[in-house]
Amino acid sequence: MNPRNKFWWFAGVSMGITALIVAILFIVLWRQLSPNEKTLLFSLFKNHFAYIFIALFLMLTGFVFAMDAMFHNYIIPVSKLAEEVAVIHSVNPAHRIRMDGSRDIARLIRILNEGADNVESLRRNVSHKIQAAKSEAEEEKNLLASFMSELPEAVLICNADGKILFYNKRAREFLEAGGGPSQTDGADGRYIGLGRSVFSVVDEHLILHALDEIAEKLERREAGVAAYFVLVGKEGRLLRVEAVPILNKEDPRRVDGFILILYDITNRIETERQVDFLLQTLVRRFRSSLASIRSAIEAIIEYPRMEERQLDNFQEIIHQETMVLGDALDKTAEEYDRYVRTHWPQVHMRVGDLFTTIQRKAKEKLGVALKVNETDAPCWVKIDSYAMMLAVLYVLKRLKETTGGKKFECRFDRKERFVNVDLVWKGEPIAIETLRKWETDPMALKSEGLGLSLREVMERHDAQLWCPSCKEDRKRSALRLFLPLTQEPDAEISGAAGVVPEGRPEFYDFDLFNQPGQTPKLENQPLESLTYTVFDTETTGLNPKGGDEIISIGAVRIVNGRLLTGEIFDQLVDPRRSLPYESVKVHGIQPEMLKGKPTIDKVLPMFNGFTEETVLVGHNAAFDMRMLQMKERQTGVRFINPVLDTLLLSAVVHPAQNDHSLEAIARRLGIRIKGRHTALGDAMSTGEVFLKLIPLLEKAGIRTLKAARQASEKTYYARLKY
Amino acid sequence: MSRKVLIVDDEPSIVVPLQFLMEQNGYEVKTAATGEEGIETLSTFRPDVVLLDIMLPGMDGFEACQRIREIPEGQDARIIFLTAMGREMDIAKGMSLEPDDYITKPFSNADVAARVRKLFSD
Questions:
Q1: More reliable by pLDDT, A315 or A10
Q2: What is the mean pLDDT of the segment spanning A627-656?
Q3: Smallest Cα distance from B85 to chain A, Å
Q4: What span, in angstroms and rounded, lies between the C-alpha atoms of A81 and A106?
Q5: Which residues of chain A are within 8 Å of residue B55 when distances are taken between CB atoms?
Q6: Residue among A286, A292, A299 minimizing CB distance to B21
Q7: Is the CATH number of domain A347-488 3.30.565.10?
Q8: Cβ–Cβ of B108/A298 closer than 8 Å?
Q9: Could you tell me the sign of the dihedral formed by the alpha carbons of A309, A312, A318, A322, in that order?
Q10: Which residues of B touch A298 (CB under 8 A)?
Q11: Which pLDDT value is given to residue A637?
């Protein structure tokens, strides 16, 4: 109960009891008196009623003043003090008590604040030391997370129940409808997220079959226990999945979880199919043409006296068919080259950039000074840059050994279909037979040696290395590298390749290994172990029943006590009605921003998918829930998730405070609010507030979802209706 | 009465030498460039042997073979597939339609002539 109300209850009850005692004493006394004494007393009371009344009134007034002074100077401050001290000790050590009260209370506040200063500085020192100790491990973790997030394969790590403990960016791209950093585009509600079930994106039967296979292999004590299957991912992509078990440390035959590694084999299969088709077509063409040629030749040989017209016919057939064969060969070679070249892991690169890198490496590794003369027009090539760099460094090394020179010049000469790259030096030219030997010797450049010869690298790139004669300057010699040119790649594609995530992506949470089973009784679960969707809506107004509509939904997930800023829902909604100016002033969403956005009947099913198997959390959630409920009939989407409200929870833990707005709670709990009045910004702030409220609720003995809901229901704010 | 041979193939470069070969062996020869044309010719020409290519435009040789077997005029005709489809699986597929022979391109003239002759002697 609010302390103010509590006090007035106490004052009223004690005054009532006092009045009752006085009345009983008076009745007992009255009965003891003789009739004369009663008459005397009555007349005394009657004659001096005014004095007696004034005396009683003054006594009562004095009592009320004394109580009020005590109330404001001691009782309320003490009550608030308890809450404020709890905040300092539990969630916001930087919080300091500032309030009015008696001199004693002021002294107590001063002492408490000093104590808080000391504790905070102590805690800061300790946390600084802990941070320093943790930083190294954290760096390794970051490295691992960044590495995993940039892997070309998709990786999903799950516990035995199929809950996702880790996923990388590629997993979303391969499996999740929409993909990308925001999950808003997940049109069919298939989401990947920490704590979510992997079975929503990969068919349960496939995984169970793979796990059975793994169990059998473990039983047979086979060396490789991975299982493989193929599944169809987003946009019909063919994915080859390798399932690897995570074995229990104590019992290596027990599976604690599994890792799914997904390879996109769509392109490979397609290339193989095309090459196969190419080969089949060529064989048939050859068979047909050879049949004609052979038949014609055999006829000529067998019937040497055939008519001249017939002979001409046969000769024409032979000629035509040999031409057809030649064309078929050329076409097949060209097509094959195209398929095979796209199969190599090659990237678009400017020749100038490649040789700038080589220039630096040549200096570092070989002590060779390579002067690179830039070209005017950029020459784009498609290469395996590492292999090509090693090949050129290998050539420079051999040149250095053979010519004894340490200075080389690099000149580019762009032709129509290829670029000449000349490595020029002062001195004798290289003999062709020497070059042949270099080409076939294995390239070995310290530890970076590639298991390929120079010729293999050249062939792989359809490039050639040659020794031209330097007619203009007989004192100089050169080696010429012919590199086939390619078109400048799309800006979008080349840009996308270089995108590096800003911070460590929160794609993993290995604590989920300790999560309870898949179908627990939510109500009795501890608050910190539940998975939450913290959400907020922006609307056209504050009257759900009066036709106001949702124009934006923002949400973020909390899993294992962590706000997952990478797992968000952020969607504008076309309300199919006008936007009042007053509402625009609050949320800043202009009507033109909503044009072309999906309507609520498209958005709510997506949002429902996002919130699956989570507890909903909102600030003043009753309003947002009302907005969602108003759309139940239209969209057929019903939100049956349990709901917690930070406004009510704040009133539960801080009943003495009057202000439970999001700003006030955030200030109290030491949270800096960002992006207020955008649905996602408010959802994020609410999420942070909620995480700080959980330990305060625990201190108040509220540990489960059920207890939190029951306590919320008892607060004054819970009676507000929309 | 001379024996009749129908050649169904869309490539003139093979039809010309084949026709010459068959005529030199004393057979009466007609040619058709598609499966449909082959079936049409069959009813009037009534060949003893059909040299049938598989990869034809429109109706392919497999289908043409089935149709020939279905119509009364085709009941007595012997069918030889003469095709560039030489993979084991292609041959198995062709043989499942029970032709009288299956010859893969390229072939020798002597071989084709011998196989046709063998069919006539059976």
A1: A315
A2: 86
A3: 6
A4: 11
A5: 284
A6: A299
A7: yes
A8: yes
A9: negative
A10: 17, 108-110
A11: 86
Say whether B20 and A306 touch across the interface (CB within 8 A). yes
The 10s digit of each residue's pLDDT in A205-223 is 888 888 888 888 888 877 7
Q: What is the pLDDT of residues A134-187, one digit of tens each?
A: 887 777 777 777 777 777 889 999 988 888 988 888 888 888 764 433 444 444
Nearest CA to A206 out of A262, A145, A133 is that of A262
Question: pLDDT by residue (tens digit) across B37-96?
Answer: 999 999 999 999 999 999 999 898 988 998 898 888 888 899 999 998 887 777 887 888
Q: Do B109 and A294 touch (CB under 8 A)?
A: yes
A103-150 and A76-90 are packed helices; what angle lies between their axes, rounded to 10 degrees? Answer: 30
Comparing alpha-carbon positions, the chain B residue that sits nearest to A313 is B16
Res B30: pLDDT: 96
How far apart CA A464 and CA A2 sit, in angstroms, is 87
pLDDT at A504: 37
Q: Which of B16, B86, B108 sits opposite A317 (nearest CB)?
A: B16
Find which of A279, A289, A298, A312 to mutate to test the B interface (most B CBs within 10 Å of its CB). Answer: A298
Which one, of A238, A212, A214, A239, lies nearest residue A226 by Cα? A214
Q: Which two tokens stand for residue A498?
A: 């270089």
Which residue numbers of A have CB closer than 8 Å to B's CBs?
280, 283-296, 298-299, 302-303, 306, 310, 313-314, 317, 320-321
Q: Residue B9's closest chain A neighbor by CA? A: A288
From the list A499, A635, A581, the residue with the least C-alpha distance to A149 is A499
Residue A128 is among the residues annotated as catalytic for this protein: no
Contact by Cβ (8 Å): B92, B85: no
Summarised one tens digit per residue, pLDDT across range A589-627 is 888 888 888 999 889 988 988 888 889 999 888 888 888
Q: Any residues with CB less than 8 A from the CB of B45 and at least 6 apart, and which? A: B4, B6, B30
Measured in angstroms, the CA of B86 and the nearest CA of chain A are apart by 8
Instruction: Residues B4-121: name the CATH superfamily.
Output: Response regulator (3.40.50.2300)
Tokens of A559: 């899993």
The span from the CA of A333 to the CA of A314, in Å, is 28
Looking at residue A388, its pLDDT comes to 86
For the domain made up of A520-719, the CATH class stated in words is alpha beta
Residues of B with CB under 8 A from a CB of A: 11, 13-14, 16-18, 20-21, 24, 55, 83-87, 104-110, 112
Nearest CA in chain A to B109: A295
> Can you tell me the mean pLDDT for A661-681?
82
Contacts of A288 in chain B (CB under 8 A): 11, 14, 84, 105
Which tokens in the block code for residue A60? Answer: 């009562």
Which of A16-20, A76-80, A295-299, A363-367 comes out lowest in average pLDDT?
Answer: A76-80
What are the domain boundaries of chain B? 4-121
Q: What is the reported pLDDT for A179?
A: 42
Q: CB pairs below 8 Å between A and B: how many? A: 71
Sheet arrangement for strand A227-232: A164-167, A154-159, A255-264, A238-247, A227-232
Give the pLDDT of residue A93. 82
**What residue segments make up the domains of chain A, in order of their start?**
3-103, 151-264, 271-343, 347-488, 520-719
Residue contact A294–B106, C-beta within 8 A: yes
- Please identify, in words, the CATH class of the domain defined by A271-343: mainly alpha
Architecture of domain A151-264: 2-Layer Sandwich (3.30)
Measured between beta carbons, the chain A residues lying within 8 angstroms of B105 are 287-288, 290-291
